[in-house]
Amino acid sequence: MDTEAQLSKRDLSPAPAGVGERSRFVRSAAITGALRFLRSGGPWRRAGLLGAACAVFLLLLSSFVLQPFLIPSRSMEPTLQVGDRVLVSKLAYRFGRQPSRGDVIVFDGRGSFVQEDLSSDPLATLVRGAASALGLAEPAETDFVKRVVGVGGDRVVCCDRSGRLTVNGVAVKETYLHPGDAPSKVPFAVVVPQSKLFVLGDHRSASSDSRDHLGSPGGGMVPLERVIGRVNWIGWPPARWASFSPPEAFGAVHG
Fold this sequence. Notes:
Blueprint: H1 3-11, H2 19-40, H3 42-64, E1 66-70, E2 85-89, E3 104-108, H4 122-133, E4 143-150, E5 155-158, E6 165-167, E7 170-172, E8 188-191, E9 196-200, E10 222-223, E11 227-236, E12 242-243
Antiparallel strand pairs: 1-2, 2-11, 3-4, 3-11, 4-9, 5-6, 5-8, 6-7, 9-10, 11-12
């Protein structure tokens, strides 16, 4: 008996009547049902669904690409002021790129600026995180915005005989400092460990930064994996709109 021939004949037999039609009918019914659901609720239902879709899109955008961040304190004046909403690029340090001296960054300070908190309410944390991700609420108390002044391997000292900050022996002219502020009223000399960052606020007299946590666990050094992103723009209010480029202050620093 020619088994292969029989199998071939079976394969060529037509599908049972109505199978293709039923499949098309199910897909058509699903689409029709979805459209009927949208129409039946009127404009309020459509507006609600559209709003929900927009919120989901914005949350995804802020989670992976560009996050709004509300400035809550005076620590970065005059560069950033209380109430500014900045746009933080989460792609700035992807694909092997790392923060550079002079960058203004947002980072998670747990383990460097604040202790790890394992007792927080997960639901409250989720709600607050969603609101801050959309720029509607102040950031979490563990999130900070500062300027990078030292990267892994740098020796950062303050101050030299002229009262200036030095990095790897090179004096830095910090034109971004708050008027009247000294680079630091408290002297320090640190070597930044590899894969860590030494950060300071531009308003030194009003900033709690790496200087204040040198004796804390982590030594006030921010691990690279805790960096959320780089501040690229001030997006709100319109009168404060600005984009950022690296300052020339660190141009002569090598190492």
